[in-house]
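Note to self: user wants both folds in one dump. Writing first protein now.
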Amino acid sequence: MATKFEQHLEAAVSRTLDEAVRVAEIAAPTFQEQARARYVEERFAAIGGWDALTRDRMGNVVAVRKGERGRGRVLAAAHLDTVFPDAEVSIRKARGKLLGPGIGDNSLSVATVLAVGEALQAAPPRGVGDILLAANVGEEGRGDLRGIRAICKSHAGQFDRVLAVEGLARDRVQLGFVGSNRYELTVTTEGGHSWGAYGRPNAIHLLAQALAALDPVYPQPGIEPKTTMSVGIIRGGRSVNTIAPEATAEIDLRSEDPNALEALDAAMKRTVRGAVDPKQGELTIKRIGRRPAGSIKRNDPLVEAVMKARRDSGLPEPVFNSGSTDANHAIGLGIPATCVGVTNGGEAHTPREWISTAPVRAGLPYVGRAIVNAARLGRRR
């Protein structure tokens, strides 16, 4: 039989979907999450009853509800930011779906955390420890997990386990944490007029040679542990009639295995350095992002707590996957963590992003149960 807390969540599905639309329509590109953060803080304040409610300078919002001493303490975090630079966002409703940028990644999870907060205060579950509900900045792109890093530092020692909440992937549970190293590769030269200074080294040409030299270094698809490398952005030059004095590429290296990631990292740096003659141009390598790789065991108490929440919510056996989320940072600190989702959908990180609304009926109570179950575990020493 469902508890009052669970019944409250079951009754909140429609309101949560409406909330997700409101959140999504507040633009929140990475590094520009403040308006959305203010809204979330106001919503937590309206719910009331918190032992602490803070919004830091970055825009991280954390609501704390104290529980029984000796019980587990859990941080449940949903990231605020999106990959979209749009100043205005519009969400469309279709039969059984919501469509629009950021609706699933990650507006629905922000709305879910707010709904769990309402349920915690309206119908407090018994036998739980401290619960910290967070809406954090900087998960996407060059945010480099800056939000969850700051929360883990400012609230160090106040929680034992972490649940990253994502809007999508309801039927996946994260056991593997894909690490990533991201770099900005920049070549600079003297430059000059394309006619008058013809013959001088061109930064674009030199960078292109360095990137082409990486071909033998690219990991082969289908080989375990899965390891990848991708050049995502290239920019440079001054004008069509100028020998380019500068060119930059942004490169992303990933792996499920920390050793494989570091080996690829070393090979990439060695290769690009060897491909650029220092007499022709200067190559600089600047790190712009780092996420630790790692894993959590299937029989870890936190994963068991999530699995119990799935069973009690009538959900099927999940796919155990590897991913890259805010939970990576906790794993890197040695704190048990995983990621749970609210619904299913597709086309994430595109303007065509969509979510199915029907799965939220089970997904919302599932996330609430997972948080409560984690807060019923014993304290970690």
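First done. Writing the second protein, which came from a different request thread.
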Amino acid sequence: MLQRRLETTIKQALAENPAVALLGPRQVGKTTLALGIAKLMSAVYLDLENRLDLQKVKDIESFYADNSDKLIILDEVQRLPEIFAPLRGIIDQERRKGNKTGRFLFLGSASIHLLQQSSESLAGRIAYLELNPIDALEFAGQNGDSLNKLWLRGGFPESLLANSDPQSMNWRRDFIKTYLERDIPQLGPRIPAETLERFWTMLAHSQGGVINAAQLARNLEVSGVTIGRYLDLMVDLLLVRRLRPWTFNIGKRLVRSPKIYIRDSGITHSLLNIGDYNSLLGHPVVGGSWEGFVIENILSVLPAHAQPYFYRSPGGAEIDLVLEFSLTEKWAIEIKRSSAPSISKGFYTACADIKADKRFVVYAGHDRFSLGQDITAISLSELMQELLQRH
């Protein structure tokens, strides 16, 4: 199993906080990572999708009293949101005894926003971390073949490390089916699986496009409000990213609708029935897929205080990814699949509009070189390393 970069961060968070929530989509490796950490300390692991384990923590005070000397790991914690209220009293009691750190590790398959609605009582007592699918630094480095494999199959461990492309594709198809038929209904929304799969596939076809809710609503024969509800659900499940536009105080008319990306490139390709690398290169979605893949990898190493956006004006000025580190520091990032990237006039104009401090073009090669006008061509892995140094 690959070493996950977040492991060190989780250990540090447990050493500084009474509770840590590790969030990420199903099958991304949360349980494997947590059990690896558990081997280094006294811990008890419970899966709240297991009926017996769920029963054990119905009376969490009694369970904790019997295991107060251990780290308690609760998997799929969104299944029991009412557990957070009594945990506040337990944590505060331990604090008074001087036991201030490392009491609970929660694993969840829903977004920070969704989980925080249930865990407000733990404000100031819990740290939130997100485990992304395996990224380019964890798997590929500067190896072009490995990077292409990661792009094709995506970063879910069982998909990426499968023995063959067909085996990987079969895993991803089962993953999608399980979400549609079991996981989403368990969370409450009564959405026909066939309808939601069509919606998911439509998003894949328009990977990286500005959302057109009215067009999606017509295609699915539902209302625009319903489309918004579907999208919110997929975002909350950490399956889809809604990238907001940068629209701050430049006195121009700008595109204000978000861009939508399916977060894992392998899931995108599975929904579109793209089974091998050559098929991917010949598919109309190849540009949007590469753009989404690069953005997800960059955001996996983005410092917590930084915010991602895109920039587009009706006149053609555009930046694929704007990273805002503060009100006075912004990076502009253009994404090109070509190994010999060229820059459009719209990128220069957009960089001037937002007063970008650094300007990068992420391309498919490995060398770093100047493209003029303070623009640097850079590989994905090298840009990710630069961002890690800012943590």
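Dump finished. Worth passing along: The mean pLDDT is 90.
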